[in-house]
Specification:
- The chain is α/β, with parallel strands linked by helices.
- 46% of the residues lie in helices and 15% in strands.
- The protein has helices at residues 12-23, 36-48, 63-76, 102-130, 141-145, 151-171, 196-199, 211-222, and strands spanning 2-6, 28-30, 53-55, 81-87, 133-138, 176-183, 233-236.
- Strands 3-2-1-4-5-6-7 form a 7-stranded parallel sheet, with helices on both faces.
- Helix 4 links the parallel strand 4 and strand 5 (133-138).
- Helix 3 (63-76) packs parallel to helix 4 (102-130).
- The structure holds NADP nicotinamide-adenine-dinucleotide phosphate.
- NADP nicotinamide-adenine-dinucleotide phosphate (NAP) binds next to helix 1 and helix 4.
Length: 240
């Protein structure tokens, strides 16, 4: 059986991706950091739609936690493998560079960049052995263009973009595709502190996007039909 793992699947974009992949027939493994209630709500929604879901809590930024959780799952599932990995877990800790603390820098890089490395390294070999896999990294327009106040976040996301392009070259012959999705402003908990009325004026589409719109794009990249798309960064930003 082919499974899907969505890091940060408890809320926001990750929750919408869990629902999308389960609609496509994948059993979903919901990773989250701490918010068990939100993860339970994602599981409930997946099951309400006829899908199946299980939890796999770990801090993506901890190599030990990632390896323990994934090795344990692999041991318990000798006939299955995780064919679709969505590296979605991420945090923002915005500050101007000259005020940025060591923690603000390292926490953001640990979660987005190191987290994507730990999970992908643990799983890509199984995808390559089985000759089918999809790695989809949720990055950001900030990692493509930069954004003031986000040197940590932009560096982490730009790092994931580099990793995406290089791994795509390593994995292409084994029918494993590796792509990045770069959202602009999407309505989730992560953006609820932002002034949407002001910021939407800089978005050509004049609105924030929805998590479900990002999930539809991820669903396409995860599908068999997207087998010839690899090493790409696809923006979903209302033209921003
Ligand atoms: P969100 O609503 O704040 O949700 C973040 C998710 O990541 C939660 O499920 C959270 O788990 C999980 N998470 C955070 N740190 C983690 C860790 N160390 N280990 C495991 N899970 C962790 O964020 P979102 O807006 O859906 O963002 C999802 C992704 O899209 C992020 O990578 C973000 O950078 C990217 N993105 C978002 C936007 C936007 O406008 N919203 C734009 C561009 C890119 P808990 O529930 O347990 O805390």
């Amino acid at each position: 059986m082919k499974y899907s793992l969505i890091t940060g699947g408890s809320r926001g974009i990750g929750r919408a991706i869990c629902l999308k992949l389960s609609e496509m027939g994948y059993p979903v493994i919901i990773n989250y950091a701490a918010n068990k209630d939100a993860a339970m709500e994602t599981k409930r929604l997946v099951e309400e739609n006829g899908g199946t879901a299980e939890f796999m809590p770990f801090d993506v930024g901890s190599m030990e936690e990632v390896n323990n959780a994934l090795n344990d799952w692999v041991e318990k599932h000798p006939d299955d493998y995780i064919a679709v990995l969505v590296n979605n877990a991420g945090i923002r800790k915005d500050n101007l560079m000259f005020w940025m603390s060591d923690d603000e820098w390292h926490n953001v890089l640990d979660t987005s960049l190191n987290g994507a490395f730990y999970t992908t390294r643990a799983l890509v070999k199984y995808m390559m052995n089985k000759k089918f896999g999809r790695v989809i990294n949720i990055v950001s327009i900030s990692g493509v263009n930069g954004m003031a106040g986000q040197t940590n976040y932009a560096a982490a996301k730009a790092g994931v973009i580099g990793m995406t392009k290089a791994l795509a070259l390593e994995a292409a012959k084994k029918q494993v595709t590796v792509n990045a999705v770069a959202p602009g402003f999407i309505e989730t908990d992560m953006t609820k502190d932002l002034n949407q009325d002001e910021l939407k004026k800089i978005v050509p589409a004049n609105r924030f996007g929805k998590a479900e719109e990002v999930a539809d794009l991820v669903g396409f990249l995860a599908s068999e039909k997207a087998g010839y798309v690899t090493g790409q960064v696809v923006a979903i930003s209302g033209g921003l």
